[in-house]
Specification:
By secondary structure, the protein is an alpha/beta fold. The protein is built from 19 helices and 8 strands. A 4-stranded parallel sheet has the order 4-3-5-6, sandwiched between helices. A two-stranded antiparallel sheet has the order 1-2. Strand 3, helix 2 and strand 4 form a beta-alpha-beta unit. The radius of gyration is 30 Å and the shape is globular. The chain starts with 10 loop residues before the first helix and ends with a helix.
Length: 448
Amino acid sequence: MDRLPFVPCSPRSLNQILQVLRRIRCLTYGMFLVTTTTLILYLIRDVMAVQVQVPKSSFPVRHPRANLMQDATVRVQYRDKCRRQDNLIFTKTHKTGSSTITNILLRYGEVHNKTQLLYKFPSSTEYRKLAEEKLLPGRKRANIFSQHASYNRSFLHSHIHPNYKTFTILRSPVSQFLSAYSFFHKVELYPAPTFTDSIRLFFNSHNHDKYLKSSWFCKNCGNLVNANAVDMGLSAEAYTKSIDKEAFMEDFLQDAASHWDLVLITEYFDLSLVLLKRRFCLDFEDILYLRSLERIKKEVVEDERLLMKIAEIQRLDIALYQHFNETFWREVEKEEGIFEELALFQKMNKQVQDFCVKGTKVGYEGTYANELSKEGRQNFHCVAMNTRCLPFSILLEARDDKSITNKERDDVIKDDDIYNDPDSLSYDQIVHMDRHVDVIELAYRNKF
């Protein structure tokens, strides 16, 4: 075979060849980087799809994906030691979301077989002052109290089992006033063309500008003005008659801080529940909830001067709210990983709500009510979460009050539409329904 003749390359040809080789090398290196980066991103995506980053804990909690993996668990560490708190005193405040908390505690007692400190059957009215004769007969002590009543430490101390924890919830007082004004039908007492005009008429009618200055009496202010402070045991009369009002309020705040182990904030409701769960060693299932008693028509006031007048008349609640809002965030800052757990809880609660609820309808006092799904009506948690606090409590009283006859019980609950609503608990369900079917597991199985 003839050899090809050797042809020497010129310097210019060599430079061109080297440039081509450099371009090929750069292109190859770039393709390698792109491929490697893509593989890493896919790997991260797959890992995140299986593992949710949550704060560590010394006790196991149920992870939503665990139900799909032979009931496996992840360990979530909140503190070095955690023991479930079974003895609880909840101070129920007005128009703060407290009914949802009471519902959580009523369910908690049923699931974990804990007793409630209840009123006599049927507790058809709201009691403001605790008294022995108002309580369910035969139950000297109980594990949980979550009913409406002005806080009375000595009374509750003698009726709740030892080593209890106390907590409550507060809402921004101006927002709370507007909600209460609408819910408690104050517009009917002060009729006007608009909601805002009605509130103006309220202020112009009774010299409310003198309230807490020279007078402690506030006409038609029940459950409306400084209601949270009154719920927590403050006396508006004692405050008004005090010589040094700032010192009086400071003493009350210090006393409140020593009596309540935890104060939740309505504006950060889900975060409050996660903090509650951590502090009292509860499970995710214990703090699930369905939205309830939300008004279909939400009134808005934009008059700045009127809002300032509301703030002025609400100054006891404002002092209380400002104090405990600050302490709330200090407590949150202590909790490592709480916002990751918050995101997990919100996804879980949304999944449970989608499982339990199929639609909405008009409910109590012009609020939204949930229409449960077929599966939801068969699950205790779904039906119990959807039952208002008063009917829920009355059903427990009907079951536990041994001093009443069957006829007395039936006269109250047998023909009442509230207790025959398929979307709320019935007496038969409160007696016989299984409390221990895992609604979180059902919700995720239903999804997948």
